[in-house]
Amino acid sequence: MRVKPKSTSGSLLELVFIVAVALGLALGIQAFIVKPYRIPSGSMEPTLAVGERVLVNRIGNNFGDPSVGDILVFHPPKGADTNECGIPGQGPFYDGPQSGRPCSRSTPTRSDQNFIKRVVGGPGDRVAIRDGHVIRNGVRQKESFIAACGEGADCNLGTITVPKDQYFMMGDNRGASDDSRYWGPIKRDWVIGGAFASYWPPKRIGPL
Predict the structure, then answer these.
(1) Residue 7 pLDDT
(2) Is 6 a catalytic residue?
(3) Where does the Peptidase S26 domain lie (predicted)?
(4) Could you say which of 40, 102, 112, 188 has the lowest number of CB atoms within 10 Å?
(5) Is 124:161 a contact under the CB 8 Å cutoff?
(6) CA distance linking residue 159 with residue 82, whole number of Å
């Protein structure tokens, strides 16, 4: 049976349709399943370098809660860029009865910014900091992946308890990360997804 050749206009319409479907799928995947992010600062060094690109699993966020050790992209609390704690007078650089402890409560609303940090404490965990290392429920955590904290005031902090449905986040570069020590734990609803792989530059390609 002889197949009738397609007209030029028909072939063009088919091409437009294929491109539209491909773009729709790509946008859908990025919006709901996997999204790329660029690392903007050195707060996660040496694990993630400035300018490195990572892939974030967004759909997995709907099927389970984060675990200690996960690297998450999330919305920080409003005021995180100025290290605002949700309890006035509390936090490592605030005067008050609980000075010398991490911020135990964030501001009630989230920022539109995207941050990337590591989960170091979950709901109900007691978290303290000694020489930049996390003491979780009285046990010093094994954190061979972190950069040394130094002797700053934020490297040795007393104990707080992470509230229900919230997570205490810290950068791996403990001496150069503005994190939950300053602005408190984040709410579960503020999590965008978990970073699971690096895809750029080529020498950094691999799972996290």
Answers:
(1) 60
(2) no
(3) 13-200
(4) 112
(5) yes
(6) 23
The DSSP bridge partners found for residue 157 are 129
pLDDT at residue 122, rounded to an integer:
98
Catalytic member of 35, 43, 104, 177: 43
Give pLDDT, residue 22.
Answer: 40
Give the whole-angstrom CA distance, residue 170 versus residue 85: 15
From 35, 78, 106, 117, active-site residue: 117
In sequence order, the 6+-apart residues with CB closer than 8 A to the CB of 113 are 75, 76, 80, 81
Of 183, 90, 173, nearest in space to 132 by CA: 173
Angle (CA) 60 63 64, round 5°: 95
**Distance in angstroms (rounded) separating the CA atoms of residues 32 and 55:** 13
State residue 2's pLDDT score. 57
Structural domains in the chain, sorted by start: 36-207 (2.10.109.10)
Tell me, yes or no, if 180 is annotated catalytic.
no
Strands (E), the chain: 34-38, 53-57, 71-74, 115-121, 126-130, 133-136, 139-140, 157-161, 166-170, 186-187, 191-200, 206-207
Q: Is the bond into 201 cis (omega within 30 degrees of 0)?
A: yes
